[in-house]
Amino acid sequence: MPKVSDDHLAARRSEILDGARKCFGEFGYEGATVRRLEEATGLSRGAIFHHFKDKDGLFLALAQEDARRMAEVAATQGLVQVMRDMLAQPEQFEWLGTRLEITRRLRTDADFRTSWAERSAELTDATLGRLERQKTAGRLRDDVPNDVLADYLDLVLDGLVARIASGHGRSNLAAILDLVEESVRRQD
């Protein structure tokens, strides 16, 4: 039996995550049945679960990948840019569905809450690092601790996700994000 290359395994894993992201986004965690995951990925359950222990492991890997991608943007451009990307290019940044499910599961699933706490530190660290660099450069207000600013921005992100998910219009959201950015900037 020929050995499958690491590149092929990584590509297959990425393909599964992309299909699962769409499935979880459309149907939620509970509605993303194995049959729907098979349809969304175009792969059999055996192929899917060769790469992931179970559905929960698949969702955690997806959530962690999305948090990593968000952390990359947050580290270089800020958490508000993550939110702007969600508005401007929702097809490229399908974090909304994942973020909604993370929020729901944090509230209802103690085991998930524990697992997620271990995996979500990257986004928090990226946000805090960016805030520290911006504050050191004199761009951010210095009368509010960085952890409070990070919690504030995370709260805005959660509110944005809830607003979009509830079907409210997006017409004022870019202006609201301008206001959020202005509220954390240093006023000279």
TrEMBL record:
The keyword Isomerase does not apply. Residues 10-70 form the HTH tetR-type domain. Keywords: DNA-binding. Gene3D superfamilies: Tetracycline Repressor, domain 2. Pfam families: TetR_N. Residues 33-52 bind DNA. This is Helix-turn-helix domain-containing protein.
